[in-house]
Design brief:
The chain is mostly helical. It folds into 2 domains: 187 residues, no CATH class; 85 residues, no CATH class. The protein is built from 11 helices and 2 strands. Strands 1-2 form a two-stranded parallel ribbon. Helix 1 crosses helix 4 and helix 6 runs antiparallel to helix 7. 24% of the residues are buried. Belongs to the TatC family. It holds the Pfam family TatC. It is a multi-pass membrane protein.
Length: 272
């Protein structure tokens, strides 16, 4: 295919992916009451499952029970005429993106599969399942771990008793959406490493040699996306470090596969 043909395929990939997202958004719009009242505003409830879990852990180790609050000291409000309408539309589109991820990944696979070997193309279903699973695990981790940590920390920050926390609905929902989706994308690290290894851009030796720099980078990322306390950063860093170590073994597997292919091709050439 020519360069323009590739661009045409990419254009249709984006068109079909957009249709999937809008379709997922339509489904989300039908369940908007559940999405807002149970999912979006769930972390605002002091009885949210994450707060209960951290409260029990803090009490067990005799730490400060900052997660055992009776209520979170802030109110959510709308400041513009079309604010709530815009929130409904964009939240449904974001939910539609999450729902459509398996279909989008399928489109991505179809786009890159012509550049793969025949024995690699048979892993299409595995790619879709594993990539989708990692993304959804990341979204759940972001929603149940990072989002409550951020909301609890930021809600209890107060420069003075005179200042009341009246949070704009866009600010609150943006935190929930951005954190959850960002974690979902970060959890795709093993898949990214797989394709970089297939293209010989990354090797397991490279990942091992730069592990110490990767740890520093992971800690920086954890510090950016979490409240500024050590416990939150550790909670976020652990799964990212595990994913990095898994990525090393994935790269090692791919490298071994590439070497076997090169050896097979060499033997064929010699026999001819």
């Amino acid at each position: 295919m020519s360069f323009l043909d590739h661009l045409e395929e990419l254009r249709w990939l984006l068109v079909r992916s957009s249709i999937f997202i809008l379709g997922g958004g339509a489904v989300a719009f039908f369940f908007r009451d559940f999405i807002f009242n149970t999912v979006i505003f769930g972390p605002k409830d002091p009885n949210f499952i994450t707060y209960k879990m951290f409260c029990k852990v803090a009490q067990y180790f005799n730490f400060e029970d900052g997660f055992c609050n009776q209520e979170l000291p802030f109110e959510i409000q709308n400041r513009t005429m079309d604010g709530q309408f815009s929130v409904i539309i964009w939240t449904c589109i974001s939910a539609g993106f999450i729902i459509a991820v398996p279909f989008i990944l399928w489109e991505v696979w179809k786009f890159i599969s012509p550049a793969l070997y025949k024995n690699e193309k048979k892993y299409a279903k595995l790619f879709i399942v594993v990539s989708s699973l990692l993304f959804f695990l990341g979204v759940l981790f972001g929603y149940y771990m990072i989002t409550p940590l951020s909301i609890n920390f930021l809600a209890n920050i107060q420069v003075s008793e005179i200042v009341k926390n009246q949070i704009d609905i866009n600010s609150y929902i943006s935190l929930v959406k951005t954190t959850s989706i960002a974690c979902g994308l970060v959890f795709e690290l093993p898949i990214i490493i797989y394709f970089l290894s297939v293209m010989n851009l990354v090797t397991p030796e490279f990942l091992r040699d730069y592990r110490k720099y990767a740890i520093v980078l992971i800690l920086i990322v954890a510090a950016v996306i979490t409240p500024p306390d050590v416990v939150s950063q550790i909670i976020v860093s652990i799964p990212l470090l595990i994913l990095y170590e898994v990525s090393i073994y994935i790269s090692k597997f791919v490298q071994g596969s590439n070497k076997r292919k090169e050896l097979a091709n060499t033997n064929i050439t010699k026999s001819e």
